[in-house]
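In the design runs reported in the main text, the only information available to the sequence generator was the tokenized backbone. The following block is the verbatim input for one such run; it is reproduced so that readers can re-run the procedure and compare outputs position by position.
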């Protein structure tokens, strides 16, 4: 049965144990193709995320508008808080430095979306960017989740003996 895995990585000898110049060259080329393929897949994940950025603002526009209308009259009113909570909870790129909204599956795609979002929002609002802290614990989780996501897509093709 064929595998549905995105990456079929050929098992090769390590560069240290390679016996020939041409063998080493082939292993390097194979590795470069594998990395290029994985990075292309990852960049496509980022591009797809950009296409659906802030989807809750489209799907729940009326809820957002009601909250926005209320917020202009009463700062942090109930409708505004309800909208903000919904938006932040459903959009994985909205996590806070205290990890309040951090999802267990948050990954580098979410982090890149967060960086782009905060840069664009800050610059559009007032022409400045306010740096936000991310805890080491959060960054470690994001890296682990990203690695786990990638490894689920890898199949090792055993080398011929």
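Verbatim output:
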């Amino acid at each position: 049965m064929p595998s549905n895995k995105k990456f079929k990585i050929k098992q090769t000898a390590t560069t240290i144990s390679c016996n020939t110049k041409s063998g080493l060259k082939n292993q390097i080329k194979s590795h470069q193709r594998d990395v290029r393929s994985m990075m292309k897949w990852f960049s496509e994940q980022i591009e797809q995320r950009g296409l659906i950025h802030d989807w809750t603002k489209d799907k729940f526009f009326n809820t957002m508008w009601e909250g926005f209308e209320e917020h202009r009259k009463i700062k942090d009113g109930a409708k505004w808080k309800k909208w903000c909570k919904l938006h932040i909870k459903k959009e994985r790129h909205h996590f806070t430095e205290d990890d309040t909204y951090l999802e267990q599956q948050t990954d580098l795609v979410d982090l890149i979306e967060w960086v782009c979002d905060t840069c664009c929002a800050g610059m559009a609002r007032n022409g400045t960017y306010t740096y936000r802290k991310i805890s080491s614990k959060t960054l470690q989780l994001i890296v682990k989740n990203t690695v786990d996501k990638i490894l689920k897509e890898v199949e090792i093709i055993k080398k011929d003996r």
